[in-house]
């Protein structure tokens, strides 16, 4: 299959792509045409269907997968596909993983690692709480393993939430060896739960967009509430411990202006914020470097608020 | 009874006051004495017991009410009481309302007004939700009516939470007549519930200080969770309506830097934030003017970030 | 008449519209054409006159009203009118109120309400001051009743200044009943005068743009000066009262960064700032909701700095 | 005469000083005493009169000059005068300039220089405006020459306003030679008038404190209004020129957060802001260096927001 | 020669211009064409070569100078050149100064003035340091005289660094006469050296872009290091004097957020920051006025953060 | 030995302490006395010598160690020592490590670990550079091993710079395993060198205060310069590599407002900033917890900008 990121003017296109968006429009001369966005896991491309009523053009809509025949052109310096034929495909004709971004790491393996960390928690209440999410709650597990960690920024792919959670949790494990004043059980439990609200904040792929409750409440407050509910269902769960765990979740963005209603008051909350921030920045830079085409200066980056550069040292 | 705000150097003191704080200390010459803070509803004053082991000095501790005999002096420009005799009083000997700050408005009347607004809510789910708090939940009602709305700033007295809630709700009623695009049922329900988390954030008088969960979670998140729990217990409560109500509570501080994890996204949330802010500023200025001794410039005020002035126009 | 907001590709256009802007341009092939912006009270639309020298095209310029004959097309996804004939209309052929935005409320009625509030002012100096503007000064009254309250944001229509002033003043009346520490005469006078500088800051419609003195001095300073001049002309006007009134005007934006050279120092100035801010936000959200086409999320809003949502509760 | 800045513990005091402040107080033992602040042009010092009713102690109050006999002691590390005798002086017994801070430059000479710059203005309207203040208006001239430019910061002495105005104006003269795009007449007129509002914002020495109108309106708005009034009284004064001059005054603090209701829009306003800022910083550092006792690091300085250092290069 | 700023639709073009940028592209119909940016000292213009393979079109690339024959058209309201013939020129056929922006002041004269100021420095170490740069170091002198002071903002032309340095230094000379507490030798040396790091931060014209070390280290740190190296090479150079000079360079942007790692701690560093800021703002406004086509309001300016206006007073 | 942190009113004192500060003062009655600050590794305490001329009081000054005989009293709620006898000790009489704060970790062991990391660097230029500091430069090594990492905040003890450097470097080692896009050699070299400028910024204990060059230039710029010098001395050291290493040092505070003249542009610089920040926060919280006397709320903490709490989970 020819991937979208490799399209060059003059190329033939004869493969299946996902239709991400479709809109009817009119040319200056009053003729109708379709403006379509095609997508595969490497990116998206604009496409035009100038003869929407011709024989080879099926009825279709987003998010159908369609078999496209056409030609790559260039318009105003941007790549565009001139679509001659478009056939809507049936399920089974295509492999969905080619069309949606997926974590490069094995989902089963990552989940197994997460479970093994849960096994290592000593405090029985915290361990029980984690099990009630990650072992008992099948619906939650399904969502958690498929969710991305973001709509646009780092870890914005299927499995991204699991990958980010595991990475943050391991960083916290390292912190526990380096800074013995940290309470390992509390910190690791908070790390594993810190973003579980994202299972409700974002819908699954191919949509991967904010839900109503995501916009009204946000993953921080929803995650805090989810932990509160499960904890209340565990007999004898110490009230103060529950509050400290919820505090870690509320405070994990570190600053009010990043949406945390509380600043970190306990060392474990400070550590979780540092781990979350570290993984976000390291993954963002890694993704940025993966998308560069040549080393050297990459221009101004809004996230890092400066020009960024790809190091190459031999 | 002679009130603390009227103490002048040279005055005799022979009345009952609440002991807010008591600490043992040592003079330069190694002699033990007690440093005590006395309180009534008009303020607090430092007091010293130079002869703690003499006959007239009972054993007592905060928050006992004690019958004090002594003299008012001045030390480094501040008023101080030199205590000669101190007798611990029994319940019944004193009227507690003289020693703790209380709303100047009648608690029963304010509560009746609140209930009559609840009665006027048309949406059955929102009305049911309000009733489940303000009619059914006796423990909550007890706390809500006694709580202050703050530790130090505006409405920091018994009944302050009720008074502030009623004032904000009425302001919102006015908004509904002036701006018809507002949804009255949603806005008034949000106004009535916006600070209910304060019943858990602050302990009752005479302590009136932040609780553990108040510090770890804050009244915004706790109020949101309280509303969520009651709503889930009401059959058929529309999910989106619940989210919008919770959103109003989360967003009622208006800005991230004031501890709201969400900025107002719906017109009712914007209105609630404006009403809350207005009542806070108007009450703060009113309390400030009540504490002035003469009109004119009152010096720099941290809350208003400028010099403030008491207007007098005849 | 067919309103601009209803134009669809393929429509015929045969009505009178105001020419808001007209510019000569040249096609890639060197042919001259006119680029014109047409306007009615529902919005504006781009139009092209490809044959500017043909018989049916009159000489005209902004802000003429012209009788247009043409066709609606779509260019790059935007609506455009292809003008075939354009005739310049004489006064009397058209109703200006169809082409300029006007307050939905009756101007006479609003003004009568304002005058009745003025009548209620007790302090003779303040009442005299208001009368010298709103009863005696015909030129001022003419401007005040026609002015908008803004170029682009809330109340940006004919009568907008009057509507906003009345709304703020009524909010202040409500405040006076809720917060008795406020001085009613001073607050209402300040509310009525707070934006009178806008009669000089913005030119009238159809221009509705900043004047030179508007840009050099601003409505806050100009309004303060206008009040100062009228007050000095009233014998015996108390100096301190004049300063407090001017202070309310100077401080009504509340913060230095919003262009107020003083922060509110008196309770009336604080109240005026709250009322002005409240009306601005409520009206902005109301106008925003009036312009939505379907309920739900409306995307990011710069003024409210968040995604906004249109509530619909049945 | 022994100056206050030279007082050392153990010194005898037998000279005339100004009483800046006097307050009655009571010792721990209930004895009355007076707490007095003495002042001369080199600074202030705390003084105590432990026997206020003894023979040698006259009745007096601020701002009397009194003939003091006493001893310098040290209390908690600070210098204090123990006053034994205090006699109130009659006018004529003392030279006021010893007790109030005065510019080190000759007032007549500075004023002559200012007038000679005014003479050099070419534009007849601007020149007339300046003359109407600095030649015709005797009451204004009296105030302008005596005023300080500040209560606490730079140029806080008699003649300070004149000295600062002259220094800013000369800097602007230099700018005109270096940057020919500047309009000399407008810039110099604005420089000369930029702080005239301070003649009303601060009362004269020995008070040198903010007036009511100073606090309510501020010198920026008052100066703008003063210029507007004088300009309106000059026949034919061009309206736009008046606005630009007023704009320079309004914008001379450069930023909203420093109290300017407008940011500089014309090059002359930018230049005036730079000149004002430069003179403020250079004079502040100069005064700071004059008050140091030894070269090297002087500790953290709030105005410069860093540790400051006195350079000494041989 | 016809300058680019004077191009109007319909004009013939038959002159030599510099090619700043050249890119191959494809039309909607798949035909190749070249998109070229032409430049002279008055500006740049887009140009298209629709028949790149025709006889009259030479091979060429940026930054060649080419002899262009074509026609000026207008596309989407912007000027565009339709190139018919393009011949690559040889060195000697054209005068480079017509194609690159150059200071309007004579380079030799400015440099002579700088040397005469250096001659006036009294401190032998500072004088030696300046000579080691500006008299002895031929490679540095070559760069310094040709460099611009910026990529895009003020003084962005050949000789701009020299012009800016001279202007700042003279302003500092004026400061020394107005504020005698300043150390003239230190301040003038710092002024002359303050931007020498720009010789390494920006490459020379026609590139005039940031170098790698410019982006990694910045001219502030590089200038500080350059001064440190030269000073260490001068026997007996006082250590403290070196530190103070380096401090002036590090602190010359005045605030951390403008890239200075230290805030000014000595009066000379404060003065240098003021002079640098003044020259930047005055030159920016001067360049802005030179580029206006008619007096009056020029729209919003990002650098001055407000609408700007060209004064015209007759 | 009785440590200062354990002093209670009424205690006898009869041990050797370091004199940190000594000052002569005068009582209200004109009698001379000495105000002394005594120090051991657990803290400092005020002491008074009321009879400075009595027999038992030797001549001594800071930083002498003195044998003190006296009594602990309480003054205004603070502990104070009333010194009766004070004898100046000779070297050898006392163990200096009892009087100055020292890292709790073994200096030799930490240094060995640092050297073993240096050994693991693969790039020959970076390895050589590290060796030129940490193996070849004896004077540097001496300073580096004894320095603290701060005057007041975290790691403010002998060996603190080494401890902090090792901790940051190990965190970076962990990052290299978790984020393979990082260049290990560059990141670890930058980590080891990031604070070497502190060897010049702070003087050694017992002073541990900012030096002149520390205040004028700062450890960031000095460290960058030190690395530049050593790199230039290594033949063939790649220029770009040197710049990237210096960039990591310049950018390691992450933001302009924290004194970095550059923001991190390469992934290694981002990682170093995160590691430095993490170690600073974790160590600060650890030290804070070590200084608490009981678990629970510890009040407002300026560094963390919130109330902090000591977790205790059993």
Highlighted features:
two-stranded antiparallel ribbon, five-stranded mixed β-barrel, 10 helices, alpha+beta, 314 residues, homohexamer
Description:
6 copies of one chain form a homohexamer. With 314 residues, chain A is an alpha+beta fold. Helices cover 39% and strands 20% of the residues of chain A. Chain A has 10 helices and 7 strands. Chain A has helices at 107-119, 124-134, 138-146, 160-178, 184-193, 198-201, 212-216, 218-232, 239-250, 267-290, and strands spanning 12-26, 32-40, 43-49, 65-75, 78-88, 296-301, 306-310. In chain A, the strands form 2 sheets. Chain A has a 5-stranded mixed beta barrel with strand order 1-2-3-5-4. In chain A, strand 6 and strand 7 form a beta hairpin. In chain A, helix 4 (160-178) packs across helix 10, helix 5 (184-193) crosses helix 9 (239-250) and helix 8 (218-232) packs antiparallel against helix 9. Chain A is elongated and about 70 Å long. The two termini of chain A are 34 Å apart. The relative contact order of chain A is 0.09. The model of chain A has no long low-confidence stretch (mean pLDDT 92). Chains in contact: A-B, A-C, A-E, A-F, B-C, B-D, B-F, C-D, C-E, D-E, D-F, E-F. At the A-F interface, helix 4, helix 10 and strand 7 of A face helix 4, helix 10 and strand 7 of F.
């Amino acid at each position: 299959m020819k991937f979208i990121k490799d399209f060059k003017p003059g190329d033939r296109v004869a493969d299946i792509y996902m239709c991400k968006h479709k809109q009817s429009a009119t040319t200056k001369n009053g003729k109708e045409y379709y403006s379509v966005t095609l997508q595969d896991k490497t990116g998206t491309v604009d496409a035009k269907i100038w003869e929407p009523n011709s024989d080879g053009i099926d009825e279709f809509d987003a998010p159908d997968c369609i078999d496209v025949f056409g030609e790559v052109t260039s318009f105003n310096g941007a790549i565009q596909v001139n679509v001659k034929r478009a056939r809507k495909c049936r399920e089974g004709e295509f492999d969905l993983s080619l069309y949606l971004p997926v974590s490069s790491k094995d989902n089963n393996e990552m989940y197994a690692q997460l479970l093994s960390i849960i096994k290592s928690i000593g405090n029985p209440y915290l361990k029980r709480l984690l099990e009630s999410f990650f072992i008992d709650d099948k619906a939650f597990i399904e969502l958690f393993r498929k969710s991305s960690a973001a709509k646009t920024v780092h870890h914005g792919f299927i499995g991204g939430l699991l990958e980010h959670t595991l990475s943050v949790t391991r960083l916290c494990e390292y912190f526990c060896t380096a800074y013995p004043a940290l309470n390992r059980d509390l910190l690791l439990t908070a790390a594993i739960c810190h973003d579980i609200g994202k299972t409700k904040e974002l819908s699954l792929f191919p949509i991967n967009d904010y839900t109503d409750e995501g916009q009204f409440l946000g993953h921080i407050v929803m995650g805090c509430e989810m932990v509160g509910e499960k904890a209340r269902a565990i007999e004898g769960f110490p009230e103060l411990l529950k509050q400290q765990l919820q505090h870690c979740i509320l405070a994990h963005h570190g600053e009010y202006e990043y949406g945390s209603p509380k600043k970190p008051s306990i060392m474990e909350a400070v550590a979780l914020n540092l781990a979350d921030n570290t993984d976000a920045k390291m993954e963002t830079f890694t993704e940025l470097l993966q998308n560069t085409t040549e080393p050297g200066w990459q221009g101004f980056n809004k996230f890092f608020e400066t020009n960024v550069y790809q190091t190459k040292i031999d």
